[in-house]
Amino acid sequence: MVQDFKSIVKLGGIRYSVVDLTQPLSETTEVYPGDPKPVKQVFSSIKESGCQHHVYTVGDHNFHPHGDAPSHQNAELQGRCFESFGMKFCFNRACMIDLSGSEGSEKFNGVKYLIEVDEEHLKPWEDAIRGKGAVIIRTGYDKWLEANKAHVPERIPYLTEGAADFISRFKGLKVFGTDSLTVDPIGGHYAHKKLKSLLIVESMVHLSLIPDSKRKDFFLQTSPVRIVGATGGPVVAYAFVKQ
Question: In the chain, count of helices (H) and strands (E)?
Answer without folding.
Answer: 6, 15
